[in-house]
């Protein structure tokens, strides 16, 4: 293992059906590639996320936790427990909402069988760094104040990066409940855009370009240093973190954000697991109607969280 290559990667081959689906997706998204790059994309992005089918047997409730508004996503038939998952939605720190992501979250709720809280952390450019991480930490502490003693973190894309940042900060915070796990899908772990896959996967990625993600990063950072560990968890202290499971498609420019993070985590002694999915795009697990691999990734992630929360 080197600092850039994990000790072990669990690679999943693409099915013929998913190969056909990604080919069709590339044709459909070609006119919009690189256009998800600022606040103007909020409505279409929310519409995309709402297309994830809702899992049966999950209820939703608006609430505030730690003073932060959001949504509870709860299994209907669940006994009271001190376990909970804090899920952080993606959207490049500029897009996304708890309401738009709740169908995607419901798929994990149904598999894990515990409550999830999805906070509506403040978005850039109206609220640049450190607003997002301040809100997420407030929500995390709020869950502890509600008596939750086993708290796992989860998230996708920028929310995946936020989950990993929060895991590190909460692990080091003496007054907080230590997180017991982190599950992330296509996490954005380096806002300096230093990963080699911005070049090697530039053509393969059907959604994002380096310029588009650079625009989102500028909205969030507004001149702040992207090397700060509260922004880019790949530059943070990783020793002592709880078990981490990462899912990433190998047809996305953020591929190496996952590869680099897991390699560094493993080198620091963290039980970190990387699942790399051949030919699949960014946060493919939210596209249950499009990809057979989506339900498989959610099954693996759900089983991981259930085991860590048990």
UniProtKB/TrEMBL annotation:
Cross-referenced InterPro entries: AB_hydrolase_3 (IPR013094), AB_hydrolase_fold (IPR029058), GDXG_lipolytic_enzyme (IPR050300), Lipase_GDXG_HIS_AS (IPR002168), Lipase_GDXG_put_SER_AS (IPR033140)
GO function term, MF aspect, one: hydrolase activity
A Pfam family reported for this protein in Swiss-Prot or TrEMBL: Abhydrolase_3
Residues the record marks as active site: 157
Protein name (database record): Alpha/beta hydrolase
Segments forming domain Alpha/beta hydrolase fold-3: 85-285
Family membership: Belongs to the 'GDXG' lipolytic enzyme family.
Gene3D superfamilies: alpha/beta hydrolase
Keywords per UniProt: Hydrolase
UniProt superkingdom: Bacteria
PROSITE patterns reported in the protein's UniProt record: LIPASE_GDXG_HIS, LIPASE_GDXG_SER
Lineage summary: Bacteria, Pseudomonadati, Bacteroidota, Cytophagia, Cytophagales
């Amino acid at each position: 293992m080197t600092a850039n290559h994990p000790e072990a990667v669990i690679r999943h081959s693409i099915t013929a059906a998913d190969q056909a689906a990604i080919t069709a997706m590339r044709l459909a998204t070609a006119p919009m590639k690189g256009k998800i790059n600022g606040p103007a994309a909020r409505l279409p992005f929310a519409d995309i996320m709402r297309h994830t089918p809702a899992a049966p047997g999950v209820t939703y409730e608006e609430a505030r936790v730690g003073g932060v508004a959001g949504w509870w996503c709860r299994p209907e038939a669940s006994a009271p427990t001190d376990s909970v998952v804090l899920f952080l939605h993606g959207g490049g720190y500029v897009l996304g909402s708890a309401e738009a992501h709740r169908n995607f979250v419901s798929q994990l709720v149904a598999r894990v069988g515990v409550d999830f809280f999805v906070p509506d952390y403040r978005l850039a450019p109206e609220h640049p760094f450190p607003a997002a991480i301040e809100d997420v930490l407030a929500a995390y502490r709020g869950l502890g104040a509600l008596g939750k003693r086993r708290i796992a973190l989860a998230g996708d894309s920028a929310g995946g990066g936020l989950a990993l940042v929060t895991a590190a900060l909460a692990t080091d915070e003496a007054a907080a409940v230590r997180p017991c796990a982190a599950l992330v899908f296509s996490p954005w772990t380096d806002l300096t855009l230093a990963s080699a896959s911005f070049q090697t996967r530039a053509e393969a990625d059907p959604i994002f370009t380096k310029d588009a993600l650079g625009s989102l990063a500028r909205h969030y950072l507004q001149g702040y240093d992207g090397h700060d560990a509260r922004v880019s968890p790949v530059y943070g202290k990783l020793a002592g973190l709880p078990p981490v499971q990462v899912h990433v498609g190998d047809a996305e420019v953020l591929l190496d954000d996952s590869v680099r993070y897991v390699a560094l985590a493993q080198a620091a002694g963290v039980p970190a697991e990387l699942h790399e999915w051949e030919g699949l795009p960014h946060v493919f697990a939210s596209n249950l109607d499009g990809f057979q691999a989506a339900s498989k990734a959610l099954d693996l992630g759900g089983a991981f969280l259930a085991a860590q929360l048990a």
